[in-house]
Amino acid sequence: MASPPPSAGPAGDPTLTAPLPITNQRPAWRDTFISLRIPNFRRFAISHLVAVIAVWMQRIAQDWMVLELSGSVTAVGITVALQFAPFLILGPYGGIIADRYPKRILLIITQSMAALMAVAMAVLALTGVVEVWHVYLIAFTLGLVTVVDAPARQVFVNDLVGPVHLRNAISLNSSIFQVGAMVGPAISGVLITAIGGGWAFAVNAVACLYTVITLALLRTDQLTVAARAPRSKGQLREGVRYVMRKPAIFWCMLMGAFVSVFAMSTPVLMAAFADTVFDSGAQGYGFLNTALATGSLVGALASTRRTTLRLRGVLGGAAAFGGFMALGSVAPNQMVFAILMFFAGIGCLWFITGANQLVQISSNLAIRGRVMALYMMVLIGGQAIGGPMIGWLAENIGAHTTVLIAGGVPLVAAGVFAVVLAQKGQLTLRFRYTVSPSQRRRLVAIVPKSPDARSHSAV
User: Which are the contacts of 199, defined by CB distance < 8 A and separation ≥ 6?
Assistant: First the structure.
């Protein structure tokens, strides 16, 4: 495993970090789930799995309910935007809160509030009085909760496992999320068809309460709690300056902006294809989301085997995600489209886990909450812009052209950034026409042009 990042940089500044720790040896298969050997993380992971399945059940039910009530894909995009807009505006302040206060207590509060919102939606839906504006209001309120929940949850992983197993825990967290994203939509699709989507909200309320109980019962003496940042002026500006002078973080965020605005509004795209292209209804919507999430699970698990952590790998994942999405524009039927979404999911999670790991490991614990909030603001907040935009495009120029744009823009952006980073890192492509029988070697590799270029390790 990678060596833990130091608590302070070479100059003693607590906001600086030493050179990036890089894993040079592939971990043993028995260590694929090594972070689950830590009791606190294992309990948290189980509750996280339950919660994610329930959240996806609620999200699919919510989006399909809006589509049925309004008959508009744009309305689904507005729902997505309202859920993510608070993070776009207030995200950095959530990071300041995460740096100042105990993460476990923050998560107990946010999950309790999420449970109340789920109960409200369940009552409205099951009594048959729900209207689109109800969904808009609750989606926006949940967005406010996410402002604090998302950065606190990201940084809390370090409290659970410590720096040594952080990369493995991040990958497993992503795997758990994708298992939930794979199972939740499938269950929700069946549930909506059989007894109505209102029960999905009730299930999520119970799952949120289970998470609260799990957090309350964690062994606090086994947590690796970092020193909390004291209240002071200019903490937000300090976080922004930190990001700007750390190339590994800056380029991850820039690539994340293109991915989140154009390619991450997959629920809107899946709703458009299920409703207007394949005419497969709620079950088709759940099936397409499950295909995407299955690929994402494969990508997340593959990331646990990552031996090196570089920007070039992050860009490669983004390019694969966008490329397979763009190919969906010429899919002749739902099955082919679902297969392409499976491979898009692999690329998506290879990008997300790589970027997440690189951002966290590149930032010091004293400022990590603010850094992760800025990163999540880009990744989550971008969907507030992309959701209604993608919905409007799907309704006005067609689902096929929209998915071509949604995948094509991140693909082109990844290519442009790769050229820029190659020039900065003095990198080039090397083609090998023979393979040594005693050693596996890549036929095509990105390598430094000169020995001096090897110092650009983040590229």
Answer: 122, 126, 191
CATH architecture of 33-225+235-424: Up-down Bundle (1.20)
d(CA 435, CA 381): 46
> For residue 11, what are its two tokens?
């100059």
Residue 368 reports pLDDT greater than 90: no
C-alpha 425/C-alpha 283 separation (Å) is 48
228 pLDDT more than 70: no
> Which alpha helices (H) appear in 266-367, and where do they start and end?
266-272, 281-303, 311-327, 334-361
Label the pairing between strands 427-431 and 444-448.
antiparallel
Least confident of 74-83, 139-148, 311-320, 402-411: 74-83
- Looking at per-residue pLDDT, the higher value among 33 and 46 belongs to 46
pLDDT tens, position by position, 39-64? 888 898 889 889 888 888 888 888 88
Can you give the residue ranges of every domain in the chain?
33-225+235-424, 426-459
Cα–Cα distance, 351 to 303 (Å, whole number) = 9
> Rounded to whole angstroms, how far apart are CA atoms 174 and 352?
8
